[in-house]
Amino acid sequence: MAKIYIDERELEVAEGTTILKAAESAGLQIPHLCYHKAFIPEGSCRMCLVEIEGLPKLELACSTQVRDGMKITTTSESVVEARKGVLECLLAEHPIDCPICDKAGECKLQDYYDEYGLFDSEFDENKEKRQKRIEIGKNLLHDQERCVLCRRCVRFLGEVTKTHELGVFQRGVRAEVSIYDGILVDNNYSGNLAEICPVGAITDKDFRFKARTWFLQSRESICPLCSRGCNIYVESHQGFSRFSLPKRVYRIRTRENQMINGFWICDKGRYDYAYLDQERLDEIRMRNSQGSVTWPEITSHIAGEIGRLYHMKRAAHIGLILQTWLTNEEFFLLDKIFRNDVNIDKISFLDPAEEASDDFLLTSERTPNKRGAKELGFDLQPADWKKFFEDVDLLFVFASPIQDGLDVGPLKEALEKIDTKILFATHNHEINSSFDIVLPMSLIAEKGGSLTNIVGSVQNFSPALDAPGECRPAWQFFIELAKKLAINFDFYNQFSSMDDVREMMKKENPFFREVH
Amino acid sequence: MIKALGNFIAIIKGSLLTTRHFMVNMWFHTLKLLRIKTKRKGAVTIQYPEEKREIASRHRSLHRLLKRDDGKPRCVACMLCVTVCPSECIFVEATEDPDPEIQKSPSSFIIDLSRCCFCGFCVEACPEDAIRMDTGQIEFAEYTRDRLIYDLEKLTE
Domain residues of chain B, as ranges? Predict the structure, then answer.
């Protein structure tokens, strides 16, 4: 351990840490553009200059390691003066086209100018004219005027994806980041480049000109598109009081979690968010019903149907088709209600087929919670559908939000022979019309709960969006249903929120006690 | 009885006041007619719809969007006016401009005048000097609210 002093604050830090990391651990911010926690420090932007007692010149905080007894000043006059100088040189070539830049609002250069700059430039020369719209990847655009040559993108492609698609060409004032001979950045993690760019040099085509960053509300969630469980921010636009917007979610950003996804998410998780807004089912649909049906009515109705079969000792004629888009708590409740109380054994899973994984984050399982279902004792093997559909009188089906990969073939034929069919759906789909009752469900981003990822890490999450229309989280319906069923009323009556269910689950199943 | 007397006195007082104003105004207007300059002026009434008052140069009237030399709107859809608008009456949607020098331009620009409070913040915030409130038009009352919603076309006229 080394004892250092930053701005007269005494700190105990491990030997070998850099000054910047030591300062950040103490909550002190040192401005930096090229430094990123994920990469080896490079020291090219010179924004992090600090004064160290006993050294004649200012030193770089990002790459200077601490020594015992080091006295560091981050706010002295010479440091501020140096930062101003660095900023002025960076801005000498920067176009300052913030009004049309998608990074404005979260741009580091903008923030630092606000903090240290607010000066008139001493440069009389005209700014160099460069290309402003180069396509460097299927989702990326590069603006060479805005680039400050921090090489974060080059280092990301070298150190993280190891695909080396970008490089710095030419030298001096002509230096520019570019692709090699028209070969585009084409890997499953390219979207991260737009996010790590400290200025607006690399921007996202998907987000281009869609919204200004300050209108977006960023809420924590977990990516449900594969079983890795990457931590994300769902960024939604709250809209204006007088004008409606075409969609809610404008962007998905990564959220740091060193245990799961580090600093990154894959392009699938980043760009395939259209399902959050498109074709959402937001009302209860019941065949042959006059007018609208409310949740309490439909819950009583379904509880009545189950109860009737249960009391006639015909519970074996109830079928349940699930998919692993449900949370741990919902599987726990399903297990309790259908297997423990009603005692059905016709439970099967209809998950989309596994797809190719990559060797980094994306897994082959395209549903978020296979492991959780397994841990709660569900058998994920696909059933023998012919045998499954024999003598089914009442069928519950949970539809997956992503229905492209779902094989509805075996379902469609069998459905015609079943008396009562109930679907829990999140989206409008052609198969919805084959069901008697269609219940609108909340998506993972719209409800709270926990998911178990492929390696068995349990992660809690809370709603990032408001559920549209009559949509409800499945767990809420399960509790209401169980109370109406009244087979084991006292057990379910103690649940009033998600946390109660979670606590009970933890108590009964030790696997879920450790949460990441 | 005393109350009625009080009322009577009040009527007399009021009449005297009106008469005084009338006489004073007549006096000054007569002097003006005779081209005698006085410090005080007689009261002036503008016969509004026929006769209009001159609008001050900084008066905030109906908005307009300025155009570039080639006729395209100057606006780059930075949405600073949308951000700053206290009554949330501006709505802008951006689109990619074919000209790489412009890059971003508005595909729709709507001002809901039924909600606008004419604070002029949008003009202050605009980095491109694309919106101004200097048309001098103050008579744009309509019979329906829909007609008070001005779009890009109406604003660039």
Answer: 1-44, 64-156
